[in-house]
Backbone:
């Protein structure tokens, strides 16, 4: 979804940076680019991608502050310091968020923002909460030093709804929906961060009218009852169609029930993305979903995150 | 080919004492774990299903309000309601990882006061929930405890849904590595982290390093963290010993791993990656479970027939079944809809079949790959679990998704 949204923004002429966080690179296979790593690369027109790892972010950041590589080596590649940094709670998350912050505020020589939009593909719920929370955790733990300052500015960016929007991505099924509702509550009430929208992915388009559904169900029961195992008759061949239709009908009903639940409990816009019957990993699908998003998602805020 | 030969799966339940389900998030791991538990209980074993997921619906389907952090027996009544008469017993328990970690602190602390000091430290909460692998470590410890208690014939564990699904395995080692490395122990000494050498043992270089670090974190944080780590380090001895024992148990013949996956390309790739990792660590992988496989409802040959034929056949069917034909029902349109739907799902079914072939090609021939079809609804009843159980263990008409 993050890739599709990024593509959608890029198509609208925004210079867009898609950030993935230390995952096995997914966007590279989607955009047909060579491996996306810790270097920012152009993967499509106006669209750049980077895979952020804590190690790379740390080096980049420390070098930015320390300026001299030799000092960086002496301090940060010190065996003891390395071991220590691994146990500083939340340092990795802060570094990755820090990199997002840096790019959101990055300006070129003429003082123009380098990126129109930065899209972060955030980790799944449990870790995602921690990821979003880390800045305020740090400002609660300490109250001076560079780490505090950085955390403070990140927090300000995250809380500013003109600049940040959090998109919650879900499936219209029991567990994902409950998780999303829980996540939304935590983000809005505990962390006081702005949720921009909820995106329900893979929604089946209803194909049959109520009369058709009734007919299909009655016919299915009839064939099922009469089915003679040895006989390969015409009726049993039709059964396959009816079973497939039954699957669709039940899935549609289930999804509608959960969409209803989302509508009832979520104030932010609910965006539905249709189910695609092709396998996920193709540029064509991302391209189509980008088209779906174009219609419904305004591209105003300068940094966006998706989680779920 | 080893696809859908159910025998090895049944043997696995008899031979192993622990079965660990690994896989990406959202592939039905929790459900698969419950299904394995159900089969084990049916076969006469006393089985514990250990989940990390507070899946309320799963709890409800087992006839309990919620799966809590205390083990709970699924009552016979629940089984009898759906016509099952298991010879064994099925128990369920949720692994509360935070709680497990608290327990571990209380157990390994040299005395009560140190234990309390750790639990009350403001870093502790973040440390126990955020440093890579701490929660997984606590979970694997808990598993070990339950195994040693020996109360169950079999324990089925559903691992946490992380992107790094193998964290659980590496957790014991990483935990020990992270907290007990010599390098780090040196830092717990008073004064080191704040850069104020009290005993004159620190070189100028060291204090330079800590001062530079302090610029980033603030000196106060370093000082406090060192106090915390120093108290915390009293636990290390226990950690190291136990981590080794846990690791040995996971690698022994007592433990078998099952890779659970969905049939889409991306997830299958991840599953194959998990397999390589497990296999590389010389752990026993007993098989694959592929959930949510789209059945071949209609078949390509049938879909090649002329669309108008289907409408005729539907009309004939309607007559023979004496179905009421309301005026609004257009047989041509219905046939078209049915065809479109069947074509779409055929696409999925073909892709799923392709994934399964790919898996069978890349995995060793003797490794069982078991398919569970995609059901109409999420499984949320014991009945549903039983349907999945019969698919998995060969009592159903036949899960021939690999053909």
Residues:
């Amino acid at each position: 979804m993050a890739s599709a949204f990024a593509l959608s923004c890029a198509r609208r002429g925004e210079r867009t940076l898609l950030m993935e966080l230390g995952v096995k690179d997914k966007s590279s296979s989607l955009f047909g680019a060579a491996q996306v790593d810790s270097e920012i690369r152009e993967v499509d027109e106006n669209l750049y991608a980077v895979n952020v790892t804590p190690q790379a972010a740390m080096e980049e950041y420390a070098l930015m502050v320390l300026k001299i590589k030799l000092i960086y080596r002496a301090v940060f590649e010190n065996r003891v310091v390395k071991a220590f940094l691994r146990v500083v709670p939340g340092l990795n998350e802060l570094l990755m968020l820090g990199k997002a912050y840096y790019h959101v505020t990055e300006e070129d020589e003429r003082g123009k923002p380098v990126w129109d939009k930065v899209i972060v593909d955030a980790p799944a719920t449990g870790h995602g909460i921690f990821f979003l929370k880390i800045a305020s955790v740090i400002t609660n733990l300490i109250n001076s030093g560079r780490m505090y300052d950085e955390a403070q500015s990140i927090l300000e960016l995250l809380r500013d709804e003109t600049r940040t929007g959090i998109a919650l991505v879900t499936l219209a099924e029991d567990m994902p929906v409950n998780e999303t509702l829980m996540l939304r509550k935590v983000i809005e009430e505990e962390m006081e961060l702005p949720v921009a929208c909820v995106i329900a992915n893979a929604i089946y388009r209803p194909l049959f009218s109520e009369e058709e559904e009734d007919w299909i169900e009655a016919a299915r029961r009839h064939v099922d009852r009469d089915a003679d195992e040895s006989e390969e008759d015409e009726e049993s061949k039709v059964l396959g169609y009816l079973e497939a239709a039954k699957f669709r009908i039940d899935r549609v009903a289930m999804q509608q029930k959960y969409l209803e639940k989302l509508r009832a409990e979520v104030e932010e816009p609910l965006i539905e993305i249709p189910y695609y019957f092709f396998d996920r990993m193709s540029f064509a699908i991302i391209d189509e979903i980008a088209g779906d998003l174009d219609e419904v998602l305004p591209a105003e805020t300068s940094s966006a995150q998706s989680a779920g | 080919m080893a696809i859908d030969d159910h025998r090895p799966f049944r043997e696995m339940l008899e031979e192993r004492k622990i079965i660990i389900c690994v896989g990406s998030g959202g592939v039905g791991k929790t459900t698969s774990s419950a299904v394995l538990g159900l089969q084990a209980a049916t076969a006469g074993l006393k089985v514990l299903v250990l989940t990390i997921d507070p899946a309320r619906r799963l709890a409800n389907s087992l006839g309990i309000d919620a799966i809590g952090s205390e083990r709970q027996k699924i009552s016979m009544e629940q089984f009898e309601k759906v016509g099952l008469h298991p010879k064994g017993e099925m128990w369920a328990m949720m692994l509360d990882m935070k709680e497990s970690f608290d327990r571990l602190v209380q157990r390994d602390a040299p005395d009560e006061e140190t234990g309390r000091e750790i639990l009350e430290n403001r870093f502790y909460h973040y440390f126990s929930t955020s440093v890579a692998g701490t929660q997984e470590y606590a979970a694997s410890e808990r598993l070990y405890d339950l195994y040693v208690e020996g109360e169950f014939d079999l324990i089925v564990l559903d691992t946490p849904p992380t992107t790094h699904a193998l964290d659980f395995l590496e957790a014991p080692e990483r935990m020990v590595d992270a907290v007990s490395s010599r390098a780090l122990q040196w830092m717990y000494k008073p004064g080191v982290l704040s850069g104020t050498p009290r005993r004159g043992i620190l070189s100028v270089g060291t204090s330079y390093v800590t001062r530079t670090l302090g610029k980033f974190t603030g000196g106060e944080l370093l000082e406090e963290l060192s106090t915390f780590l120093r108290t915390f380090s009293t636990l290390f001895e226990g950690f190291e010993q136990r981590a080794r024992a846990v690791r040995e148990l996971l690698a022994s013949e007592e433990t078998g791993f099952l890779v659970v996956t969905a049939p889409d390309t991306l997830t299958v790739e991840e599953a194959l990656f998990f397999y390589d990792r497990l296999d590389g660590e010389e752990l026993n992988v007993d098989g694959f479970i592929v959930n949510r496989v789209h059945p071949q409802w209609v078949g390509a040959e049938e879909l090649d027939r002329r669309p108008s034929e289907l409408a005729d056949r539907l009309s004939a069917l309607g007559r023979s079944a004496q179905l009421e034909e309301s005026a609004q029902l257009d047989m041509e349109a219905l046939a078209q809809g049915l065809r479109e739907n069947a074509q779409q799902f055929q696409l999925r079914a073909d892709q799923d079949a392709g994934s399964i072939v790919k898996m069978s090609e890349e995995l060793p021939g003797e490794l069982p790959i078991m398919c569970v079809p995609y059901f109409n609804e999420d499984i949320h009843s014991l009945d549903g679990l039983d349907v999945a159980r019969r698919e998995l263990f060969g009592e159903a008409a036949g899960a021939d998704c690999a053909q």
